[in-house]
Amino acid sequence: MHSAAFDTGELFTPSKIVCVAKNYHDHAREMGDAAPTEPLFFIKPNSALWPQGTMVVSKPRWTEDFQHEIELAIRISRQCSQVSPKEVFRYCDAAAVGIDFTARDAQARLKNAGHPWELAKAFDGACLLSTFVKFSSLEKLQKLNLELRVNDELRQQGNSAHMIHQIPFLISAASKLFTLEPGDVILTGTPAGVSPLVKGDSVVASIEDIGEIQFVVDEV
Predict the structure, then answer these.
(1) DSSP symbols for the chain
(2) How far is CA 198 from the centre of its chain?
(3) Given a cut of 90, is residue 61 above it in pLDDT?
(4) DSSP result, 14-27
(5) What was the pLDDT predicted at 35?
(6) Alpha-carbon distance 41 to 186, whole Å?
(7) Its domain of life (predicted)?
(8) Which residues pair with 187 in a beta bridge?
(9) I want to staple 110 with a disulfide (CB 3.0 to 4.6 A). Which of 19, 65, 117, 155 is the partner?
(10) What are φ and ψ of residue 62, in 5° steps?
C-alpha cells in the first residue's frame, strides 16, 4: 500500500482517494459542460498514488493526452459516514496540494462510447500529493489561491472560493455514498487551464498556505 505524509514526516495510508469532477465553474465551461447540480464523484485506488517525495512522474505510453489538474486535497481523520455539512470539521484535519493526472484521450473515447472511464483516472501513478499540513478551520480553506506552472508558463490559476460545491457539502455528500476511512483523501476539483504534459516538462503546483509540488515528466 502507498503512503501519504504529514509535513512532520508522519506517514498514513489512504484506502482510497475520492475525487470530484467539474467542481469549478470555469473548468466545467472549458470541458463544454454545465455546472453540475450535485457533486460528481469518482474514486482513485491507493495504487494510483505516487510514493511520497516523488520528483519524476512517468507519463504512460498508452496515452497521447496526459493532463494535469491541480486540486486542494483534504485528509479524513476518522471514520465518516452519513455526516451533515455542519459535522464535517470533526472528521478532517489536514490539507495538501494534489495533482489528478488524467488520460484525456482515453476518457473522451470511453465517455463517447458510454463506457466507464476509470482507465483514464485510476491508473498507476494517476495522483501525486504534497505533504499534508494541519488546519484549524475549514473556512480558511475556502479562499485559497491555486496555481500550476509548466516550464514557468502559467497554466492553471484559481481560488477555492470558486468551487461550485464547498468542502463541507462535498465531504457530507461523499460520506452518504461511501464510508470514508481514516487517512482517505478528498480531491476537491480543479480550476480551468488543464492541458497536456509531455516528456521533459517541469511542473510547479502550489496552493496558498498549504504547500507546493515540483516534478519533471518522463515516460514509461
Answers:
(1) ---EEBTTS-EE--SEEEEEES-BHHHHHHTT-PPPSS-EEEEEEGGGBPPTT--EEEEPTT-S-EE--EEEEEEE-S-B-S--GGGGGGGEEEEEEEEE-EEHHHHHHHHHTT---HHHHSSTT-EEE--BEE-S-TGGGGG-EEEEEETTEEEEEEEGGGBSS-HHHHHHHHHTTSPBPTT-EEE----S---B--TT-EEEEEETTTEEEEEEEEE-
(2) 20
(3) yes
(4) -SEEEEEES-BHHH
(5) 74
(6) 10
(7) Bacteria
(8) 19, 73
(9) 117
(10) -80, -5
Average pLDDT (121-135) is 97
CB 164 within 8 A of CB 28: yes
User: What number is the average pLDDT over the span 45-52?
Assistant: 96
Query: How confident is the model at residue 186, as a pLDDT?
Result: 98
Any idea where the domains of the chain sit in the sequence? 4-219
| Cβ within 8 Å of residue 211, ≥6 positions away | 7, 96, 97, 130, 131, 133
All three cell numbers of 196: 497536456
pLDDT band at 137 (very low <50, low <70, confident <90, very high): confident
